DNA sequence: GCAGTATCTGTAAACGTTTTCAGCTCGCTG
DNA sequence: CAGCGAGCTGAAAACGTTTACAGATACTGC
């Protein structure tokens, strides 16, 4: 049988089955055909081990059945949670997922949006760390549907799923106050990021609501990361030995701070309480388990994916204007603030901290 | 200004610039053209906001500039490390990365390999949890280059990057013995997985080497996960109150076990030492920081990506037979086994536990 | 100014599929 | 048995690009 060279195509099948390529295509797509023809084509296809060329199908059909998710660094547990959820939704709808790390480089983020024009994927979920005027401009003239995970000015016509980190931060600080803490320091990431800014706002509001004094020097804002959290906590404890709680703008900062506390021989939560945000897998893996605010990473991932698929499958493409959804934050109390918190985590979300092994060998 | 409908193509550019589509293509690809022509084309392209259709380019060129990475669940920190590294290498070579979670479903893993035939991506990095005869069959007749991260029988003509978890496990157990531990329990994942099997072998070998007795009932093998580790540790401590160390087949098990130890009011490492494997981000975020064996996830990711790119760009496509590489395991001693271990982690690998925030809002 | 050459340009085919359109075959009805 | 319509089928166009080929133009050296 003439292998022709290269993988089998509908042409090879057509030759082998003695029919036209149109018939082959129809049979393979389940469109009407005579039983006789169906049999011949299916037989030939099976014998040749035919697999349809998705690229050609994409070119013809104008859709690639691929979605892109762009965030700054897959290393962050929050993005991992989102990726997992987005992938699940996408796959269920027959879409593949393309991953793009921007390393928080603005120009790279913009490039991702522009690259929608190359038709490589049908839609984009973008998780920007900052929103600049250029973002807005590029987003509003994107070549395909985009859903932003994050806050967007109200008049921008782009779908968005937001977290309410102001409210989330307030929840955490309120909880710390309710459990008797009065001198609550803030360990934060860069203030010129949306989360850095908003989480601080929540902290300030909560202090004000509670009538607690705000000491500007009981705040640290450097990076979002373990080492930064540890350093900040040590500094704060040096300067303010009377602190009784750390509110940290994410779980990684919180774990870093916890390390510093432990290193000084202090106890969590008896001497110092620690609370984080994001309720990532880290929180329940820590000791003591970390009180954290679930900002709905999983839910936001799912919603964003759904919204995007809506735009894609939807008959009313232009019909609906930009939609906005906000995930409601939820406080998860664990041992780092409350010694009485149940030891066994109530298996927060689904699969927990992943069940697999670390790769064969 | 005939917008024609649909996004700009080389045809629209050709019309607007008054040249043929061939000239447009040449200019855009930097092949020789008269300065005059270049100017006209570039002008028209810019005015129309032209972005080349990557799908059409793929169809013509036969390569998509996409790579696929398939593993069971992105939730596992080890895979996250690999993804990050693979993405970095891929992107540097101008490739996009397609992510595929198989949920450890064998049939799904096989489907991924077969789907190489649809030309959606130019190559595949596969991280299987088990290797079945079907794997071997499907792999050896894959429609494109594949690199497996994991162990493969020697006669299978497929590139592979392996970890040496037998040696790795021995390192950890030896270390525990050297620091005075004698009753070392094993907390493992399923024995019918490659890692589960191999890590146990390493444990057994180390015990034998060291002349330590092996108590079959000081082993637990259930799942690879936090909860499983916690449960197993509690059971073991109930049955063998005299244990002085837990060797765990991955970091998640180890952190679960640590929780159990803490819950019983025992101290780590004074009363019980705990060691894990994989040296994931979790290990340095924990308290006390977790002694773990770095099986080279980052390195394996990088190597796998490089090998794949070699196959793709390589002139000598068929020239080289299957290549095999093994990453050398490395013990990272931290506070969970050695109270004197340096508190500040020597910033194990590059970016550490991720530096980003938890997504805007 | 002319032959010869080097450079550039346009036409057309190709990549592998889906889909329109017209034509064909077949079975049915009268 | 003629006529009709339903149902299949095949030829061809289309998706947007790259590229071989041949034809056109501009240059060089005399």
UniProtKB/TrEMBL annotation, chains A, B:
Q: Compositional bias (Gly residues) at which positions?
A: 351-361
Keyword Transcription regulation present in the record's keywords: the answer is yes
UniProt lists compositionally biased (Low complexity) regions at 334-350
**SMART domains attached to this UniProt entry:** HTH_LACI
* Region of interest called Disordered, as start-end residue ranges on this chain: 334-361
GO-annotated molecular function: DNA binding
Residues forming the HTH lacI-type domain are 8-61
Name the Pfam families on file: LacI, Peripla_BP_3
Q: Does the keyword Nucleus apply?
A: no
Please give the InterPro entries that the UniProt record associates with this protein.
HTH_LacI, LacI/GalR-like_sensor, Lambda_DNA-bd_dom_sf, Peripla_BP_I
Q: Which UniProt keywords apply?
A: DNA-binding, Transcription, Transcription regulation
Note the superkingdom of the native organism. Bacteria
Q: What is this protein called?
A: LacI family DNA-binding transcriptional regulator
Q: What is the lineage of its organism?
A: Bacteria, Bacillati, Actinomycetota, Actinomycetes, Kitasatosporales
